[in-house]
Amino acid sequence: MALRTILIHPDPRLKRAAKPVETVDKAMRRLIADMFETMYDAPGVGLAAPQIGVDARVVVMDCAPKDGPREPLTMINPEVVRTSEELNEHEEGCLSLPDVYGLVTRPTTVGVRFLDETGKLVERDFDGLWATCAQHEIDHLNGRLFIDYLGAARRMMITDRMKKLKRERAKAAAH
Length: 175
Ligand code: NI
Hints:
- By secondary structure, this protein is an alpha+beta fold.
- The chain contains 3 helices and 7 strands.
- Nickel (II) ion binds at residues 94-96, 136, 140.
- The site of nickel (II) ion has 5 residues, from helix 2.
């Protein structure tokens, strides 16, 4: 297993629709292991393959309470098959947008069909933080970030802040 570098917005690899996975093989399971290691290390509750520069429809998540056992969940080629009419507002963050938070409104519950890490087709309903996270991560596979739900002015301000952060990090790495 290896820690992967998480891309920071703005980056064209975060803005494109990712490719469907055709076979769940050994290389895919290695990618998934790396994604979990990277997500837990960050730490975060979700990570999508495009965030580490991999063009594949793969998501890892773990929204279990921090003081309890881990509940790792892998979703390959996830598709939202139903959403509740009821909406929920949640303050979201993202590993590709360090220290940025914003209120996003999404359906409270969501049903998702996906392949698990063994290649088995699964359908599962999510609520609470799991529902927010699942929708946020699936958005990543479609080149969408949570700041796309915020106003244009706010989004531009955040993008400028992230550009500055990336310049500072590049400078620090050069020394
Ligand atoms: Ni994210």
